[in-house]
Amino acid sequence: METTAKKIGIWMDHSIAHLMEFSSNPFEVQTIESNFTHQEKMESLLKGEDHLHNKEQQKQSKYYNKLLAAVKKYNEVILFGPTNAKEELFNVIVADARFHNIKIQVKQTDKMTPREQHAFVRDFFSNK
Q1: What sign has the CA pseudo-torsion 33, 39, 40, 45?
Q2: I want to staple 107 with a disulfide (CB 3.0 to 4.6 A). Which of 80, 93, 96, 114 is the partner?
Q3: What are the boundaries of each domain within the chain?
Q4: Beta-carbon count within 10 A of 7 CB
Q5: Residue range 85-111, pLDDT digits in tens
Q6: pLDDT tens digit string along 17-62?
Q7: Residue 14: which of 53, 54, 62, 63 has the closest Cα?
Q8: How far apart are the C-alpha atoms of 112 and 120, rounded to whole Å?
Q9: Which of 109, 106, 81 is nearest to 94 (CA)?
Q10: How far is 44 from 5, CA to CA, in rounded Å?
Q11: Nearest to 29, CA basis, from 43, 46, 9, 49
């Protein structure tokens, strides 16, 4: 049986998320993408702004659901990144009773290199 890690850091914006499991081993990074391409955006915009908004909401919901599936395996989560996507995901998580036993924090950060993201997660969980 696979043992699940207890802590994960997720650097995210509206288009991509980098999930970094906190452990003493080198980080394994999983990437989840939104899949709302520029071409889809342009095609939806041609059909009208309401259509674009609905399509965007559907794609964003799928993106967040993929992240929720990953988050449920952990006890502690740090969401960080440069946009408000992390707050949006946080609001989805706290509204769902399945996640009430998970400690989740949100931190605003700038764009980061993968090395900076790993250092942030390591420092965040090491200082607890």
Answers
A1: positive
A2: 80
A3: 7-33+71-126
A4: 18
A5: 999 999 999 999 999 999 999 999 999
A6: 999 999 867 777 899 888 755 566 566 556 666 655 566 677 788 8
A7: 63
A8: 9
A9: 106
A10: 40
A11: 9
